């Protein structure tokens, strides 16, 4: 069974709805679709001086996508934009190139390490970061 | 004729392999069926002994290759009770529909109408939307019933004197629902329109008399009927094809080319520009002969039994909790062996991923039917689709794995 990618931490994150809501008048917001599966992720950010005051998500997607969105939004508070982008890059490297994965506050993403062996699911984990980058890009940051 | 599922299974080498430590339980046949030795050997034999381009060649291999290619056309024609001239080889269902959308569609005028349905695969929606954008036609949609069938009661209200074509799915790739073709053909023809059917999901289930069914165009793919990828067919009535302009231009479809003009070849070659998929066509010819060798009645009974076992098993798993929502007819009548369902709280891709861990190959997602998903307010479903080589063990592996997946994911 492919239970290795549905370990307890992933399931807890995927079912955590604390940050699953929309932010009124966000500083940055974007929605992205995964054309392969139709999944959709929206990331809302409230920013002050390029630091995150609040982050939330709205996910219509699989457990991996929901868990990734939670891991991102739950730990984004007080972080600067560069750190969030770097976390996405480290997660991408972990999945695609065997990198170590994010450390410290974002080490929840290490739980996605086993997904590296399932290429068709990489985009599920990375979709929230795609939404994040799109939101920040639209904001002109 | 015989029908022994175990013996049939043994004819498919890929079904002997294991996946993640389990026997392969391949239940993704609506996406692609596997190929038996008869097809694999036919392709291998052609490529190793007769490989050459078709038509015009005078050397031995070219003649043999041409003969094999045209024999394959003949086998397909016999399977459909049609004429060889009416069988156009394409790369698949999508290219066959696009051929009609261009060749026939280019004869449409602004304001002419095409009717499709909410049950269609994207391949029978997008070409007509593109035609709408090119020609200014009006595109109308038949709704679906709660059982995932096309709502034929709505047809009368949509048909008008401007209707030029109704293009519908013969068997749904999501719900398995089979269209009652005869119930719609007469009404469609009565307003002077033509009927096209997407037969991709029908063809694996035995030969039938296509010309008397009432369709004017019929499209299907080889890879969903035990044949290779890259080959498909557009069938159309000879008198329609004779009047239809070609879609693509190039070699193989001409009689003569001068600086001033081109004289096109007769049908079916007029619609087969460029070097065709020759070995794939030979494989398709072998596949239809292989299907014909089966006891059709027992094959149908076998698949109905497996479909029923799947439906009953899902109901048992649900235990009356309302956790599993079926998308499709409740029974096995007028349906092919395709079973789609959603599980509250569990995404189809997660279910499919976990089932892969048991060697069970399913498909999850929108199945290229996003309009249908929107109709039922779903992002996707999990789909099990059966073929003649499937057994009760395959269905039971699905149900056992699904039980565990539901426990983990919900």
The coarse overall form of chain B would be globular
CATH topology of the largest domain in chain B: Aspartate Aminotransferase, domain 2
The strand count of chain B comes to 17
Q: How many helical stretches of chain B? A: 13
Distance between the termini of chain A: 43 Å
Total helices of chain A: the number is 4
Q: Strand-and-helix sequence of chain B, N→C?
A: HEEEHHEHEHEHEHEEEHEEHHEEHEEHEH
Determine the mean pLDDT of chain B: 96
Instruction: Give the CA-CA distance, first to last residue of chain B.
Output: 47 Å
CATH architect. name of chain A: Alpha-Beta Complex
Strand order of the largest sheet of chain B: 4-10-9-8-7-5-6
CATH class of chain A: Alpha Beta
Q: List SSEs of chain A in N-to-C order.
A: HEEEHHH
Backbone structural class of chain B: alpha/beta
Break the fold down into its secondary structure elements and pairings.
The complex is a heterodimer of chains A (141) and B (410).
Chain A: H1 8-15, E1 28-33, E2 40-48, E3 51-60, H2 63-75, H3 81-97, H4 122-139
Antiparallel strand pairs in A: 1-2, 2-3
Helix pairs in contact in A: 1-2, 2-4, 3-4
Chain B: H1 5-10, E1 18-19, E2 22-23, E3 25-26, H2 37-50, H3 60-79, E4 87-90, H4 93-103, E5 113-117, H5 126-135, E6 138-142, H6 155-158, E7 163-169, H7 181-190, E8 194-198, E9 217-221, E10 232-236, H8 238-243, E11 254-257, E12 262-264, H9 278-292, H10 296-318, E13 324-327, E14 338-343, H11 348-356, E15 360-361, E16 363-365, H12 370-375, E17 381-385, H13 392-409
Parallel strand pairs in B: 3-15, 5-6, 5-7, 7-8, 8-9
Antiparallel strand pairs in B: 1-2, 4-10, 9-10, 11-12, 13-14, 14-17, 16-17
Helix pairs in contact in B: 2-9, 3-9, 10-13, 11-13
């Amino acid at each position: 069974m492919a239970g290795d990618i549905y370990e307890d931490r992933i399931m807890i994150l995927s079912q955590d709805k604390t940050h699953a809501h929309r932010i009124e008048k966000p500083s940055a917001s974007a929605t992205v679709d995964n054309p392969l599966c139709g999944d959709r992720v929206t990331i809302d950010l409230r920013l002050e001086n390029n630091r995150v005051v609040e982050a939330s998500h709205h996910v219509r997607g699989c457990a991996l996508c929901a868990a990734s969105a939670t891991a991102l939004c739950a730990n984004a508070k007080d972080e600067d934009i560069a750190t969030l982008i770097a976390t996405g890059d480290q997660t991408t490297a972990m999945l695609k190139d065997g990198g170590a994965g994010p450390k410290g506050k974002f080490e929840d993403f290490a739980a996605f390490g086993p997904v590296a062996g399932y290429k068709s699911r990489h985009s599920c984990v990375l979709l929230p970061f795609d939404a994040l980058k799109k939101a920040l890009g639209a904001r002109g940051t | 004729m015989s029908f022994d599922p175990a013996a049939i299974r043994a004819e498919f080498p890929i079904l002997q392999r294991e996946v993640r430590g389990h026997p392969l339980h391949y239940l993704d046949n609506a996406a692609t069926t596997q190929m038996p030795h008869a097809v694999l050997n036919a392709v291998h034999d052609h490529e190793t002994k007769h490989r050459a381009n078709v038509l015009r060649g005078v050397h031995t291999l070219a003649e043999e290759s041409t003969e094999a290619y045209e024999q394959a056309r003949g086998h397909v024609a016999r399977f459909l009770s049609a004429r060889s001239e009416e069988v156009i080889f394409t790369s698949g269902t999508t290219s066959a529909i696009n051929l009609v959308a261009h060749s026939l569609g280019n004869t449409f005028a602004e304001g002419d109408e095409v009717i499709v349905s909410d049950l269609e695969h994207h391949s029978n929606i997008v070409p007509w939307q593109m035609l709408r954008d090119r020609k200014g036609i009006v595109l109308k949609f038949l709704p679906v019933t709660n059982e995932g069938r096309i709502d034929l009661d709505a047809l009368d209200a949509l048909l008008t004197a401007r209707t030029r074509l109704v293009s519908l799915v013969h068997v749904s790739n999501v719900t398995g629902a089979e269209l009652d073709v005869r119930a719609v053909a007469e009404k469609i023809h009565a307003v002077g329109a033509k009927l096209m059917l997407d037969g991709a999901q029908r063809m694996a289930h035995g030969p039938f008399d296509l010309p008397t069914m009432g369709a004017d165009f019929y499209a299907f793919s080889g890879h969903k009927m035990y044949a290779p990828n890259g080959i498909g067919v557009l069938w159309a009535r000879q008198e329609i094809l004779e009047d239809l302009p070609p879609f693509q231009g190039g070699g193989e479809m001409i009689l003569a080319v001068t600086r001033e003009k081109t004289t096109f070849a007769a049908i079916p070659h007029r619609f087969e520009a460029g070097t065709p998929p020759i070995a794939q066509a030979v494989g398709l010819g072998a596949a239809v002969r292989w299907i014909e060798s089966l006891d059709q009645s027992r094959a149908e009974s076998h698949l109905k039994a497996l479909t029923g076992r799947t439906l009953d098993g899902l109901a048992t798993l649900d235990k009356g909790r309302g956790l599993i929502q079926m998308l499709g007819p409740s029974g096995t009548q007028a349906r092919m062996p395709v079973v789609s369902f959603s599980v509250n709280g569990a995404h189809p891709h997660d279910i499919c991923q976990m089932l892969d861990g048991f060697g069970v190959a399913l498909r999850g997602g929108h199945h290229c039917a996003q309009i249908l998903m929107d109709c039922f307010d779903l992002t996707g479903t999990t789909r099990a689709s059966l073929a003649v080589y499937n057994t009760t063990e395959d269905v039971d592996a699905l149900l056992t794995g699904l039980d565990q997946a539901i426990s983990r994911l919900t």
